Amino acid sequence: MNQKPNQSAWAWVPSLYFAQGLPYVLVITVSTIIYKNLGLSNADITFYTGWLYLPWVIKPFWSPFVDHLRTKRFWVVTTQLLMGVLMAAAGLSLPGPDFLRWSLIIFWLIAFSSATHDIAADGFYMLGLNDHQQSFFVGIRNTFWRIAAIAGQGGLVYLSGLLMNRDVAVKKAWMIILVGTGLVYFGIAVYHKFIMPRPGSDPEQRITNAKEAIISYFKTFVSFFRRKNIVVFMLFILLYRLGESQLTKLAAPFLLDSREAGGLALSNEQVGWAYGTVGMLGLVAGGILGGFAAAKHGLKFWIWPMALAMKLPDLAYVYMAHFQPENIYLIQSLIAVEQFGYGFGFTAFMLYLIYFVQGENRTSHYAFATGLMALGMMVPGMLSGWIQEMLNYGNFFIWVFACTIPGLLLLPFLKIDRKFGKK
User: Fold this and answer.
1) pTM of this prediction exceeds 0.85
2) In degrees, to the nearest 5, what angle opens at C-alpha 258 toward C-alphas 276 and 316?
């Protein structure tokens, strides 16, 4: 490896994972707020935006080509440039009469590019850092991914509220925001073009003929399902985030909905600040602490405390849905506690994915794992709006908390080396 990982990684790990997080948050979370502002029902919002998970679900099918064609660095920069253009295009689609169809198509293209970017970025991360450095920087990468979330569901949503309060129409406000975001993101891509290192572990690769490509593809795909303990792993990936998959989709609509509908009747600015800023700062703090903790004592030591820290704070939404507090500081505090616990606990989940795919074809296998993760988020998320409308918000969040239990029941069956992640 022709770089000094600890020194140079600070120049690219933070910005790389900010660039990974922003399109995901824009497509999965901010889009739900945009469509809520435009008057769609919760059932329609979760169904339509739920389909936007699909590229992350099916990305394993093209991950071997990313793994065996060109370099991970090439794919990172190329997809970032493309996403910058598409973000601006999404904004320009909103003023049109058929905005729903065209914006969904463009959001889907962003999702496809983002899923491809994830394959390359995660592969570059694993190739450029050793095991201990991966444990150390997992908190940093998660932190900057979450900073992207703050910028997206905090900053962009807050800005939309400011524009609307100045009598800017909803569609025009979001058009301005998305075009501006696309320009900034394009600038990040240019930065990475010149700053990201060229490690010797990321060589230029080419497939010379179709037969070689097909054989390489199927060998990589089959080898994933031959891994030891693959059944327990797949169940864990699909079920561990079952509660979160539904809470994430309905958190913002719950905060925005009227009190008569069971929500908290917050404005866009209040949601951007409470959920997207204060909450995300709690999540960032939890992610940093989780990374440091895992690097000190290892994944095996922390997996139970982290899992409980991720699940139990979901009760904050049960409380808010039943008592509908009006004190904005109390609401912010409850969201911050829930997000802090999630940030701390999610560290264990991501480290387990990295641990499980160690060895040959780990870039493709990590993509398979995150594709399963996306499937576990997509299907329950698509149904969450229908479930909420059937149950109401109070019972819905009780249901969400119940959905956290299956993931906990699988923890005793995970096989983890006690030394993994420790210095």
Assistant:
1) no
2) 50
